[in-house]
Amino acid sequence: MTPLVAVLGNGPVGQTAALMLARWGVPVMLLDQRPHRDSAGSRSIVQQRDALDAWDAVGAGRRIAGEGVTWTTARTFYRDAELFRLTFTADERSRFPPFVNISQSRTEQILDECIAAQPLIGVRWGHRVTGLAQDAAGVTVTCATAAGPAVLRADYAVACAGAHGAEVRRMLGVGFDGQSFGDLFLICDIRTDLPGWAAERRFYFDPPWNPGRHVLIHPCPDSTYRMDWQVPAGFDERADGRDARIRKIIGDRPYQVVWSSVYKFSSRVADRMRAGRVLLAGDLAHQFSPFGARGLNSGVQDAENAAWKIAFVLRGWAPDALLDSYHAERHAAARENLEVTSATMRFLVPGTDAERRHRLATLGRAATDPAARAAVDSGRLAEPFWYTASPLTTPDPGRPFGGRPPRGAVPPPGPGILVPDVPIFAAERTGARTLRTLARRGFVLLCASGADVAAARRAAGVVAAPVRVLDAAKRPDSEAGLAAAGLAGPGEVWVIRPDAHAAAVLRDPDEAEIAAALRRALARAGTS
Questions:
Q1: Within 13 Å of residue 213, how many CA atoms lie on the same side as its CB?
Q2: 389, 406 in Cβ contact below 8 A?
Q3: DSSP track, 366-429
Q4: Among 193-197, 323-327, 420-424, 446-450, whose mean pLDDT is lowest?
Q5: Burial annotation 204-233 (CB, 10 A radius, 16+ → b, else e)
Q6: What integer pLDDT is reported at residue 525 of this predicted model?
Q7: Are 128 and 152 in contact (CB under 8 A)?
Q8: In 3D, which of 525, 3, 524 has the Cα closest to residue 315?
Q9: What's the confidence (pLDDT) of residue 92?
Q10: Which of 186, 289, 332, 358 could form a disulfide with 341 if both were Cys (CB 3.0 to 4.6 A apart)?
C-alpha cells in the first residue's frame, strides 16, 4: 500500500513540510479549513538565510531571495538620537544574504507554484479537521466540508494549522502553556518613497512621535515599508489617527496604505511536539513575540526536521523511534526561542519597576557605553538551533559546545551544529555544488586527509539509508576551503545528517566507530 502523510494546515510551514516530504518520494495530502488562500498583508516578512537555504532544496529559495529586499543595516534610535547601527556582511560561503524581507503572502504564492509542479502533493481546501484517531498502523483524519464529512487515512500527520490550532491540540491532548500579552500593536504596510531607507531596518525606542513606546520599520519590495507601532490599550485604528502616525514618520510625501491591522501576540510552547503518529510544527506548536523573526523561520526548521525523519521511517531506513528525536530537538529549539523572545519582551515592555529602571538606564548609557549598547534588546534575530544535546548526536569532548553565541555570530562547526555551506569538489559533485545541497540527499561522510576512506565506505554499507562518502583529499584546494570553514581537520570523519547538521565529528575512527555514529543518528544505537 502506498504510504501517505497528511499535513494539517496549508500555511508556509505546512507547504514546506509537504514539499520536503515529496522530495523524499512521500505522497502528501495538504488539508486546510479555509476555502482558499488568503493573500492579504505582509505578516511574517523576515526570512533568514538558513530558511532560504532549506527552501532552495524544494525549488523556492532563490526565487524568494531574488524577489525580496536584502537589508544590510539595522539602526537603533532612542528618542530622537541614533544609538548605534549594525551592518550585516555577506557570508562568502553562502548563496543567500543574511536576511530577506518579502511578504508572507508572496512567499506562499511561490511555494504554491512549487506544490503545483509536484505530482506527489494533493491539496484540499475547505477541510476543517473535526477528528483525529490513531492506531498502530496510522492516523484517521475526519474533516467537515461543504459536501459533508470526509475521512482520510494516513500513515503519519504533521499538524501545522497555525495560531488557530487549539482544536487540533485538544484532540491530541497536548498542553500549550505560556502567556498572552495585553499590549496592542498597529501594523501598516505603506507604499511610498523614502530615499535611503530601502536597505535599513529601523527600531525606535520612545520616539517623540510615539512617546513611551516603540516603533519598528522594515523595508519590503515595491517601495513598501512595514511600520509596526506599540500602541496604548483601547487603541482604535479608525478613531486614533493612523494617518497622523504615518505622517510623523514620512512627512508630507504621498503614500498608500496597502494593508493595516491591530494585533496582540502570545508566548507559548506545546508540552509535546510528538503525539503518537502526529508531529506538531510551526505556530500550532509554539508562538513567540515577533521581535527577532523567530516564528516562521523556526517553523521551516520544524518542517525539514519532521520531513526527513518521517520519510526515513516510511522507507524502512530508520525505526519509528527516530520520530522521538523530533520532539527532543525541536522542543528544545522552541524553548530556546521562547527564552530569547521573552527576554526581548521584558526589555521592550517592562513588567516591573526594576525592569523599567533597567531599560531606562541601559538606553541612557548606550550611546557612549559599549556594554550598555550590547544590552539593548530590540530582538535577537532568528538563527538555526544547535542539536548538541540531541540523542542523535555523538558528543566530541574535543569540541565542547560553548552555549548560545553572541548576537550575530554562529557557533563553530561541531556535533549538532548546522554545517557551513561550502563548495564541494567536482569529482564528488553528482549534481550538487555545495555541502548542504549534497547532505539534503541523504547522510554524508566527509573524510579529511588521513582518514580511512575505505573504512567509511564499509560503514556506509552497514545502514539501509542513503550515505555518500566524500574524500576531501582528492582535491587539496577544496580541502583547504573545508578546513578554513572549520570542517575536515586531519584524520577527521564528519557524519552529516540530511538536514545538514553534523551528527558526529570523529578523529581517526575505524569502521565500527563510524558505523556506530551513523546508527545513533538514525536512532538505531545498539542495533546491528
A1: 15
A2: no
A3: TTT-HHHHHH--S-PPP-----TT-TT----TTS----SPPTT--PPS-TTSBPP--B--GGG-
A4: 420-424
A5: bbbbeebeebbbbbbbbbebbbbbbbbbee
A6: 76
A7: no
A8: 3
A9: 67
A10: 289
Cβ of 431: how many Cβ atoms within 10 Å?
Answer: 7
Element containing residue 334 per DSSP (H, E): helix 324-348
How many helices, marked H, and strands, marked E, lie in the chain?
14, 26
Per-residue pLDDT reduced to its tens digit, 45-97: 999 999 999 999 999 999 999 999 998 888 999 998 999 888 877 666 778 99
Under 8 Å CB-to-CB from 516, ≥6 apart: which residues?
394, 525
Q: What is the layout of strands, in order, in the sheet containing 184-191? A: 81-87, 73-78, 200-205, 214-220, 224-231, 184-191, 256-263
3-state helix, strand, coil in the chain (%, to 5): 30, 25, 40
Cβ(348)–Cβ(319) below 8 Å: no
Quick one: which H or E segment has residue 261?
strand 256-263
How many whole angstroms separate alpha carbon 365 and alpha carbon 430? 55
Whether residue 189 contacts residue 224, with contact meaning beta carbons closer than 8 Å, is answered with yes
What pLDDT is recorded for position 431? 64
Segment 304-336, tens digit of pLDDT: 999 999 999 999 999 999 999 999 999 999 999
Residue 365 in this model has a pLDDT that exceeds 90: yes
Largest CA distance in the chain: 74
